[in-house]
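Title: Request for sanity check on DNA-directed RNA polymerase prediction

Description:
We are preparing a figure and want to confirm that the structure record we downloaded matches what your pipeline produces today. Could someone re-run it with the sequence below and paste the raw structure tokens into this thread? We only need the token string, no images.
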Amino acid sequence: MEVLRKSLMSSVIWTTPLGLPIVQPYRKTVRKQIMTALQTVYISDPNSMAEVNSVKQASAFPPNFIHSLDATHMMLTAIGCRKQGLTFASVHDSYWTHAADIDAMSAVIRDTFVKLHESNVLEELRLEFMTRYKDYQIPLVTLASGNLTKKLYEAGSRIYATPEQAKSLAPLKDLIVVSENTSSVDESQVVKDPNAVKQLADDLNSMSTKKSFSEDDEDGEFEMEGETRQARAARERKEAEREAVLKLYGKFVSVGALLPPLPKKGEFEVSKIKASPYFFS
């Protein structure tokens, strides 16, 4: 299952409103330790194939996407200033020009900001993701986490399944919408061989940590009662997870089908910032 997850991973990629493609570089780079007479040195090959770091990819995308919009605004401002013959320089989000041209540059900054953010930035991003990742599929077994399932449900994600499919998708019941005619579940890779299913179950059992106490040791049972309850709860949780894996293994849903709908656009009129004495002042 771990191999399956790794093989389906991809860096997060998007395109800015100016057409610049952005690829997040976060991967689990393998480092080698080199011992020298003076010190220990760690080296890595930046050109070697490396597994995507999914945690960093996910956590870094929101701020990086905003940074890409800020960079787009900077470039639009630079282009606007050039068209008006204004000198322009910048360091991050600090924009400079000659003192006599500050008011003119201020107008360019506001105009380009409004133009950028009045466009359907998020809608364009979603459409790009739908196109770019249309052939990417997510193993349903990776969604069988209570916390993740809850977040997907709250975001509006839904998985369509036939009544027959829904019977085996109980671990994801909150996300399932039963439909007679529509299904977003791909079952073409479901393990059907009984021996293979048994082997999968055995592998899952061997991966779990087992703790046991002697039934004859009543004193030990009494003294460790609290821990025994914890162990029992952990065992039941592991059993539920194994059952979920067996039901969901080999079933997939496309990224496009799982992407949640966009939230309703707010009512704030971004053009109002043109009258603000504080915006980019």
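Thanks, this matches our download. The longest helix spans residues 54-83.
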